[in-house]
Hints:
Blueprint: E1 2-6, H1 10-21, E2 25-30, H2 36-39, E3 44-47, H3 54-63, E4 68-70, H4 79-88, E5 92-95, H5 101-117, E6 124-131, H6 141-152, E7 158-161, E8 168-175, E9 182-188, E10 193-199, H7 204-217, E11 222-224, H8 226-230
Parallel strand pairs: 1-2, 1-3, 3-4, 4-5, 5-11, 6-8, 7-8
Antiparallel strand pairs: 6-9, 9-10
Helix pairs in contact: 1-7, 3-4, 5-6
The protein binds NADPH dihydro-nicotinamide-adenine-dinucleotide phosphate and the ligand O=C(O)C1=N[C@H](C(=O)O)C[C@H](O)C1.
Amino acid sequence: MKIALVGYGKMGKIIDEIAQSRGHEVVARLRETPTIENLNDPDVVIEFSNPEVAFQNIKTCLENKIPVICGTTGWLDKKPEVERIAMENGTAFLYGSNFSLGVNLFFALNENLAKMMNKFSEYNCQLEEIHHIHKLDAPSGTAISLAEGIIHNSNFEAWKLDETKEKDLGIFAIREDEVPGTHSVFYRSEVDEIEIKHTAFNRNGFALGAVIAAEWIVDKKGVFAMKDVLGL
Ligand SMILES: NC(=O)C1=CN([C@@H]2O[C@H](COP(=O)(O)OP(=O)(O)OC[C@H]3O[C@@H](n4cnc5c(N)ncnc54)[C@H](OP(=O)(O)O)[C@@H]3O)[C@@H](O)[C@H]2O)C=CC1
Ligand SMILES: O=C(O)C1=N[C@H](C(=O)O)C[C@H](O)C1
């Protein structure tokens, strides 16, 4: 499979190594806006850039009928538009706030726990995420996915950064050294606390998941999520 990497920073470089180790050809490594010329005729694009440029990058690829796997976080207000463009152009799009297998299992665990805890008003819930100091967006995309899983299964109506207030579920975002990504969900009562936590030791799990998603999507049309790839 021919893969174009749009965004070639911390993630792009690891994805490059993993893609090649799985027998794929990396035909473009871009740190600039993609064009039909510099993409170099890929079967699929893997996009890990930054929140400012992701929408335009994805749009260009989809309008040229190239399937896109996107891991960039912090641009999600435009996701419905991207999904429309993918459908109109008869191609495929998959966004994952987190491509690691462990976090996708954690998402399922979180939803099940939220359903159960919603029956017990003794417990209040909040989320915490810890990332490296270079991260541009807060809260993390993963924390937003976790919050959506809780909101869908509880009486919370929305999430709020750095504060839990009435019907708003608090997400506390901490920036520390070079931490690759830690997410915790806490249920706290007056007498005890339940915590579920995922700790990424490095970025390899994110990168491998993105390559597996690219292998999965290449002959498909439509809008997908990582749970489709993993059969969750
Ligand atoms: N979904 C997931 O599993 C994960 C998602 N992420 C997310 O992925 C994104 C990238 O993370 P990371 O690799 O750590 O970030 P980096 O800052 O290390 O890399 C970003 C890259 O994008 C490049 N870039 C800048 N402008 C453009 C443009 N217009 N088009 C294409 N590329 C451009 C930068 O180039 P230059 O250096 O020259 O500016 C750089 O190579 C972030 O949003 C992060 O939150 C991260 C890890 C896992
Ligand atoms: O920016 C990062 O590094 C990460 N971003 C993703 C997010 O925002 O959730 C995934 C992972 O936590 C690392």
